[in-house]
């Protein structure tokens, strides 16, 4: 009898030592149910469950399953790789440099300030477009300041020169704005410029929507690059949501009542009253609707249970 019980509980996955202890305490004639209860009470687990409980380095999750281990998180959910959740940045280099130079000097330092601002936020894809002829020595009609910054950004694979050449002594320049909009559109990123690109909006209807929704304007305040906190207006997204692929909705905050304790609206008041924390903030009509809905819902659930 003892051996048959040992074999039975061994097949269930319990250890021989735990089984021997229980049989010794309860006796050889103990029922299987009693032995099982005692094993569970002792905290003994089948070996299969113990192996599952041990954290494994790599766990395969069935397709379509939403369950994930606490140690493994999708990229972007935690702060480990925020670059995947941030939009690519395409900077209109000429526009930024001329804005920083008060439309008189092509200030390369302004480009560096803009690039540093996005780098500090965690953006990894940053491209700056500048016409190729800006590599040439500065002239009186087109002065350039801190030209060495362009070389450094080019080495970092941040700055891209749009093509230009000379034909019979005249400079032929490709339209750099088209490069900027095209790359930003293909990458589903953000255009950093104070230009509205109206000619390109009329050229392509898809570009028109993209420029309207993804254009980030800016200002320079005491050598500080400052984009607006509300890029699409007061009722649009915040700057952090505008620059991220997965916008975070703000939590609803109750606005405190301007009348405070002197308010005479009672439960009908739509504002927040801290002194009425334990009272319902619903109106009388909403309270009546809620009370009438609850019994009906309970009745339907009871009917479903009886049918089943």
Give an account of the 3D structure:
By secondary structure, the protein is of the alpha/beta class. The chain folds into three domains: about 1-40; about 90-245, Rossmann fold; about 250-275, no CATH class. It is about 40% helix and about 10% strand. The protein has helices at about 1-10, 15-25, 30-40, 45-55, 95-100, 110-120, 150-155, 175-185, 200-205, 205-215, 240, 285-305; strands at about 90, 105, 125-130, 145, 160, 165, 170-175, 190, 215, 220, 225. Strands 5-3-1-8-9 form a five-stranded parallel sheet, sandwiched between helices. It has a two-stranded parallel ribbon with strand order 2-4. The protein has a two-stranded antiparallel sheet with strand order 6-7. Helix 2 packs across helix 3. The longest helix is centred in the last third of the chain and has 24 residues, at about 285-305. Its cofactor is Mg(2+). Keywords: Endonuclease, Hydrolase, Magnesium, Metal-binding, Nuclease, Zinc, Zinc-finger. This is ZC12D ribonuclease.
CATH class value of the largest domain: Alpha Beta
Helix-strand category = alpha/beta
Number of helices: 12
Total number of strands: 11
The main pleated sheet reads as:
5 strands, parallel
**What overall geometry do the principal axes of the alpha carbons give?**
elongated
- The secondary-structure element order is HHHHEHEHEEHEEEHEHHEEEHH
CATH architecture of the largest domain: 3-Layer(aba) Sandwich
CATH topological fold name of the largest domain: Rossmann fold
Mean pLDDT reading: 76
Share of helix, binned:
40-55%
Q: How many domains is the backbone divided into?
A: 3
What is the rounded distance between the termini?
43 Å
If strands are numbered along the chain, what order do they take across the biggest sheet? Answer: 5-3-1-8-9
Instruction: Give the low-confidence spans.
Output: 48-81
Strand content: 5-15%
Radius of gyration: 34 Å
Q: So what's the oligomer here? A: single chain
Organism: Rhabdornis inornatus
GO molecular function: hydrolase activity; mRNA binding; RNA endonuclease activity; zinc ion binding
Domain C3H1-type: 251-276
Keywords: Endonuclease, Hydrolase, Magnesium, Metal-binding, Nuclease, Zinc, Zinc-finger
């Amino acid at each position: 009898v003892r051996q048959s019980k040992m074999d039975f509980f061994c097949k269930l996955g319990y250890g021989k030592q735990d089984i021997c202890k229980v049989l010794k305490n309860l006796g050889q004639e103990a029922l299987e149910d009693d032995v099982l209860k005692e094993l569970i009470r002792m905290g003994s687990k089948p070996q299969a469950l113990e192996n599952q409980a041990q954290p494994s380095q790599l766990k395969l999750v069935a397709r379509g399953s939403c369950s994930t281990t606490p140690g493994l998180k999708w990229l972007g959910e935690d702060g480990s790789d925020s670059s995947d959740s941030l939009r690519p940045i395409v900077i209109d280099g000429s526009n930024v440099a001329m804005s920083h130079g008060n439309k008189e000097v092509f200030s390369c330092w302004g480009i560096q300030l803009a690039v540093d601002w996005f780098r500090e936020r965690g953006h990894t894809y940053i491209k700056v477009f500048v016409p190729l002829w800006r590599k040439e020595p500065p002239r009186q009609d087109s002065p350039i300041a801190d030209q060495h910054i362009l070389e450094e950004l080019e080495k970092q694979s941040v700055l891209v020169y749009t093509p230009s050449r000379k034909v019979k002594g005249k400079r032929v320049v490709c339209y750099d704005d088209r490069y900027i909009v095209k790359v930003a559109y293909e990458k589903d990123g953000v255009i950093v410029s104070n230009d509205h690109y109206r000619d390109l909006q009329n050229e392509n209807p898809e570009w028109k929507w993209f420029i309207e929704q993804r254009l980030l304007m800016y200002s320079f305040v005491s050598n500080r690059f400052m984009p607006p906190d509300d890029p699409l207006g007061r009722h649009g997204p915040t700057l952090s949501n505008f620059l991220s692929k997965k916008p975070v909705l703000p939590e609803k905050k109750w606005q405190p009542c301007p009348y405070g304790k002197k308010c005479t609206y009672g439960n009908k008041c739509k504002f927040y009253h801290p002194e009425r924390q334990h009272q319902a903030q619903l109106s009388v009509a909403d309270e009546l609707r809620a009370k009438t809905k609850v019994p009906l819902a309970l009745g339907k659930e009871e009917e479903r249970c009886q049918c089943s």
